[in-house]
């Protein structure tokens, strides 16, 4: 599909319990959804050959990006997810940018692969945020992020330079088998933690 066809498919009002089914779609050119109000959407297994830009977009419904492949840069800066955002098994070949994103539901990135770095600076998550079994290379930063529903990092493999400075974790901080470089990821890496941490 062309990017404009996908934009047209998403130009519908949001209704509770409904979503636009775009599973497995291959977008041939860069998809730009910046600043749009979007309904629920299922991009499970989709491929964005030239990347995606959704700066400042507002996702009203559930958002599925599971097993999605981003061949180009994925720019979600300042987007707002009003429901769950699911990125399990997603593959990011280019830069992955989520700076300033608001997650009102869960943010789930289990087993996602970040080949060229990722920026989660100043994100705020109200639900649980999960990085279980994530693998990352390049520069990864979570500087200034706040996780109000806890943070789950079981088995995460993050680069040695992963930045958790000035972060806040409210609730459970799960760090079992999580690594930053060749060392264990510990609660001391975070700015402030207000709940129990499990190592």
Query: What portion of residues is helical?
Result: under 10%
Measured between the Cα atoms of the first and last residue, the distance is 45 Å
Q: Which structural category do the helix and sheet elements fall into?
A: mainly beta
What is the rounded Rg? 16 Å
In percent, how much strand structure appears in the residues?
Answer: 25-35%
Arrangement of strands in the largest sheet:
1-5-9-13-17-21-25-28-32
Q: In one word, what is the shape?
A: globular
Helix tally equals: 1
Flag low-confidence runs.
Answer: none
What integer is the average pLDDT?
97
Largest sheet: 9 strands, parallel
Query: What is the tally of beta strands?
Result: 32
The overall number of domains is 1
Description:
With 199 residues, this protein is mainly β. It has one domain (3-198). It has one helix at residues 3-9, and strands at residues 20-21, 26-27, 31-32, 37-38, 41-42, 47-48, 52-53, 58-59, 63-64, 69-70, 74-75, 80-81, 85-86, 91-92, 96-97, 102-103, 107-108, 113-114, 118-119, 124-125, 129-130, 135-136, 140-141, 146-147, 151-152, 157-158, 168-169, 173-174, 179-180, 183-184, 192-193, 197-198. The strands form five sheets. The chain has a nine-stranded parallel β-sheet with strand order 1-5-9-13-17-21-25-28-32, with no helix packed on it. An eight-stranded parallel β-sheet has the order 4-8-12-16-20-24-27-31, with no helix packed on it. It is globular, with a radius of gyration of 16 Å. The mean pLDDT is 97.
